[in-house]
Amino acid sequence: MRNYAGRGLTVYGLDSEPTPPPSPSTAQPLNRKTLLPVGPSRRVVNSLRRLPLMKSQQRVFRWSEDRQKIRTVRANVSRMSHSVHGAEIQRVVRTGRGQIGQTEADRSKQARRSKGKTESVSGVTVTPQSADLVEFSGSVSLSCSSSGSSLSFLWMNSSSEVTASDRVQIKTTEGGSTLMIINVTRYDHGLYYCHVQNPVSAARSDPVNIFISYGPENTTLNVSPSKEHFVEGSDITLGCSAESRPSAEFTWFLNGDPLPDTGPELNLKNIQVSQSGNYSCRAFNNKTGRYQTSQPSIISVLEPVSSVTVTPQSADLVEFSSSISLFCSASGSSLSFLWMKSSYEAKASNRIQISDGGSTLTIFKVTRYDHGLYSCHVQNAVSNGRSSPVNIFISYGPENTTLKVSPSKEHHEEGSDITLGCLAESRPSAEFTWSLNGDPLPDTGPELNLKNIQISQRGNYSCRAFNNKTRKFQTSQASAVSVLENNKLSGGVIAGIVIACLLVIAAGAAGVYFVYKRRRNLKDTPHSAKTDGPENTRLSVSPSKQHYEEGSDITLSCSSESRPPAEFMWFVNGEQLPHSGPELELMKVQMSQRGSYTCRAFNHITGRDQTSRPTEIVVNGYMSSQRVSAR
Question: What is the CATH number for 619?
């Protein structure tokens, strides 16, 4: 017998006389055949492919081990037999060097022959029985020994075969095998077995536990619930995790100082402001002797806002002569302050200063537009609060004091009833006294009633407005009241009376409208709007002409860039007109109304004003009547 173990084949001696090959008609194509393994742990597969020849006994056989081609031979078929249903297949192939192949029957015969020669596998043991190592800090050597002969060895880690590599060395001798793992890693951890076999038997050792300690690594701290800020009294859970074998032990720190708590969780119940800070956890492996600290997590605990108050509770001031400071206080932590005037935000400007972290509001040289209800809004990340309103009362005036006569006539008949009314812009409301030809009358109040007027009562009437807070007074322009003995009046007199009445009524209405419009704008201004201006104040005239005929209708318009919208006042030759609003209408204009016109835009939020460039109105000719109105 010749042994071609290096090629995974066994070759037997040649027959003395070759047997005639079967005829092509009786030969059966057999394409695959399994050979006896060379060793107990190896299996040789013969992939046999026959290339048929019509008149030749030669065949080509290709042998492979584990499906890898190792040899191609040419041979003559000397004997072939098989059963129909494949119970037994025999074929002997003769080559120039011997017979190749083995049948199932041959296998059984050899097993019976080897039984008396090969000792069965027994007593498979591995030493040491266990190993406890630290990753990257040690190596391990396992020795496998067994009784028996013709032994082959195979190392297994759980269900996977252990193969040699740059860190794994396997040395096998006749009676044993050694497995060495150098510089162990966490992936070498597990149960190891030694498998031993020979042609007649196989056995396996008891498992050997290789325990590899590593870590801790990737130490992470998680906060639940996850928030940027927590209200005082909340419950918070901090969890710490780390990759480690064996499981890590955990300790906790606040601002770098150790806490008495241990374990993977830190429960903070009813947390207080004093517990705010940087929390971290440290993982420790008592086998590797290593530890790792997590990145710190900030826990911010805030006291809710409460007890918001403003001092003083009220203030009574005079325009342009006083300043005031309001102080806001509140309980809570990390507070921010916002001042509100009625429904809009009070912002810093050239007259308004916000200081002390927003808690103090100072208004310098207060104006009438600073009058109103102020409140302080306080908030932090978890709550908010608002103070009760504080009333800032700003006194001003009197201004624009005007007198009107009703009915408005140039001359009144003796015995007529006449009412004189006095108006003034003032806070608080002005007190009124009356004069005739400069001499004081005993009458007071905003109206003077002249019943059944007599000639002796004719003259120049005027009224004086007095503000008892500002201690200021202002006297109106005098109005002439003419009383005649009879009721025969010329057309010119009647026209003059009508014109005078219209002027007085228009002046009074404009004054009232100006006050009303200014207050309305103050209320309607949204608190969230940005405030600026006025800027680019311009005056335009329609129709645009160099000269106007007496009796023409002229409209003057004023515009300005302002937020909130500006309030407008009108001037002619530097004297203020009793009109307000963005338009001034001169109906049936008279020569007396010619002059240099300007408009002034005023922003009651910013406290700033701007006057337009003057526009010259030139009127030629004469008309007998005029009317001035504003809108």
Answer: 2.60.40.10
